[in-house]
Amino acid sequence: MRTNVRMILCVVACLVAAVAGVFIGRSLFPAPAQPGAELHDVLHHRLKLDTVQEAKLEALEARFAVQRRALELELRADNARLADAIQAEHGNGPRVAAAVDRSHASMGELQKATLAHIFAMRQLLRPNQTAQFDQAVVKALTDDQR
């Protein structure tokens, strides 16, 4: 009986230590900001969009979310084809090279779609809003994301 109590206390102590470790780790080493988070903040909080701009922005974002999801699924499929090619060839053979090329093409399509989305959002802005938006875009592209 006494051994069971000790075991339970040990498990509880381990659980408390683990939770405390996670809390301390998150406090000392916060997660890095997501790429584009500042751009989102600029658009939705700092630029003071009017109701027409907000409505148009919501529509753009909804359309892009669908497009982005489709392109990301294509990238996942490309990765699966690459994995299959690597497993079949066990080296940098023609199937691997073709799968890499296809993956790069899909990545390029996602990047082009993202840029088109950024430019479409910019078109919604008034001239006095574009400079701040442009700065946020440049920062999102050039900040070191370590």
UniProtKB/TrEMBL annotation:
Pfam family, one: Metal_resist
Gene3D superfamilies registered for this protein in UniProt: 1.20.120.1490
InterPro entries noted in UniProt: Metal_resist (IPR025961)
Descriptive protein name: Heavy metal resistance protein
Organism: Sphingopyxis witflariensis
Record lineage: Bacteria, Pseudomonadati, Pseudomonadota, Alphaproteobacteria, Sphingomonadales
